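Two proteins were folded this term; both appear here.
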Amino acid sequence: MSQLEQIIKQRKSVRSYDPQFQIDKREILELLSIAANAPSSSNLQPWRFIVIQNKELQKEIRTLGFNQAQIEESSAIVAVIGDSEAYKNVEKIYSLNVEKGYMDQSIADRTIKQTLNAYPTMPKEGLKEIAAYDAGAIAMQFMLLAKDRGYDTITMGGFDKDAFAKRFDLPDNLFPITLIAIGKALAPAFNTSRLPIESLTTYFD
């Protein structure tokens, strides 16, 4: 079994954390930076983050998260935020691709034009769905990277998203998707079963 397979199987949703254990801010940012290699629609990277490592603020956010203890007791909370206007960064992103030699200018220009023709005309709900889908990819990569370094995580979609957005004065284009607690487990997570993949898959050969 490869190391990646072991990490995937070992990562569980931990709900009990050592409140005294702290992860250095620089390491959290490093984990996010590596996780940001996740794929996204048109490479627009529609994810934003709010990292909360202040215990008083974690206690406050716990009230918005239906009193889930891990929000307050973990080393940090990483809020994954979606940006429904991520397409506005397309020129910056693709100009950097050209600068780094990843593609030539004609491909970048064509992609920029296609993006600016398509995305602004989409319904906002469609743009939010794209951002939420892409956020799932980076959230999973972040949690696997955390496990690889010996940390534990849990992702939480159950919190008052409207109140959270208001608390942090999020503009209309930014919306909270999930909270990820990261820290050191105080008690092991429950093991969990999985349905047989054959019962979930239609296969044509």
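Next, the second protein.
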Amino acid sequence: MRGGFTIGDYSVIADVSASLLKLLREQMTPDPIPQPELIGLGSPVDKGDFYLSLFLFNVKESGNNRRTQMISRGTDQMQYPPLAVDLHYMLTVQSPAELQSRALDEHRILGRAMQVLYDNSVLRGSTVVGTLAEREEEVRIVMDNVSGEGMLSMWNFAETPYRLSISYMVGPVMIDSTRVKSVKRVLERDVSIQG
């Protein structure tokens, strides 16, 4: 807290991840995934029993959403504009079904995940958690147009065979600056007219 306002909110990336996880868990259980705990955050190769994993694999500055205006914080301080970033997530599906029905099961899970993210393409309201709930900015969810070859090249997990995955871009996400500048406001103005 500085000058009566909170700055330096760096937890917004974690809040976006938690919000996505909450959304998927609420809308994908009990069908096609039987329990919410089977949807989680983690690398596609983490040991575990996730049917659907959400993996933050890249963060990029969002040049199109860069802000340049200082933010007024009271009468004597200005805060530098926030850093705008886009978050890139990989959703990976892994069904425990028998080999004969595994692929179809994974396709159903993937289809439902895509449907949920499409129908909730703007994170807001009761969907969001943490500091994200206190902000007025909209965070959009857009499927990344990554080619099959591009997805395979992103799948760089040593000896682990490729699993059905898709990529999403979520943003813009604003990370507050901790820099503030003291300013003196004009309290009086003397206007003299010369004739």
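Confidence is low (pLDDT under 50) at residues 1-8. Helices lie at 12-28, 99-119, 148-154. These notes refer to the second protein only.
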